[in-house]
Amino acid sequence: MEEDEFFGEKTFQHYCAEFIKHSQKIGDGWEWRASKDCSDGYMCKTHFQVKNGTAMSHQGTSAHVQTFLPVEEAVDPPLDDFEVTETTTAAEVIKYEYHVLYSCSYQVPVLYFRASFLDGRPLALKDIWEGVHECYKMRLLQGPWDTITQQEHPILGQPFFVLHPCKTSEFLIPVLKNSRKINRNVNYITSWLSMVGPAVGLNLPLSYATAASQEEGNVSGQDNQRPLI
Amino acid sequence: MAEEQESTLLLPPSTAPEAEVPAEVSPETATPEPPSSAAVSPGTEEPVGDTKKKIDILLKAVGDTPIMKTKKWAVERTRTIQGLIDFIKKFLKLVASEQLFIYVNQSFAPSPDQEVGTLYECFGSDGKLVLHYCKSQAWG
Asked: I want to staple B94 with a disulfide (CB 3.0 to 4.6 A). Which of A12, A173, B57, B98 is the partner?
């Protein structure tokens, strides 16, 4: 079946790995977490956003979001790679977590996410809606319960918001069919995440676009492209 | 790769709210001059210095998305992807329940706040930027 060919679980893991390779190159913060029995896993990223619009400088963040130095409890970031030009109080900082999992029932990737203040208080659904980009608000508000729902994370067992996956293959297949005419190795995780991410505050740096068509050691794509990091 | 450095290099200061800082571009490839003296457009002969200069965009439909009668447009560099999406939606008379996506490289959807000028610099060739667009019921 065509969909299997596009979105099987093996290709899911393969393209996540390629995606993460590029993320590591540009310091975008994605990593893979395996489930306890290692039979499956997911890709995840945490970033911090200042709610009141204070500007920060930070290496490798997506352009759209104002962020500052992410402080993970378990990880010591290389401090000389980051610059914090301003500080802010904890109450204004929101921690976003994005998880990319594979849905066996829908046979597509699914985006799980949650947001909380630094003191651990989760964001209310209303705050999540407010964070949806203008571009998508109208459509999402037409059928909110069809689009963003709250579900249990299949691996962590904790409540997350989910972008409902039932239409994913419908909007992704035409694009992939088209792009695979010219490049069979297009990374569908990159394509998919670039489309759904912005709706919930997740923006991919442009260099993923070039990386996605340069997999498996191809020399830099088209000669007109500027080298992105 | 600090964002401040990038915003100095690539954005016209008068139109750049913080949200429109573009994605990372290697400092070695971006022009070092501030935007008022403007990066030279790849492959064109237009005079530098006009940051409001328009770029040529060629729009191509994907799937069974309606094809626009006019495919080639001159668009201001500072127009965002979101602005372009709104424009195409109106032009194609799409209803609110339909989502429109725009792609570079036929496969990657830039974030809605991305400016077309930046995309042109990264992905343009032969004096134009080719963008594919696709409508869908993306959600639910």
From this structure: B98
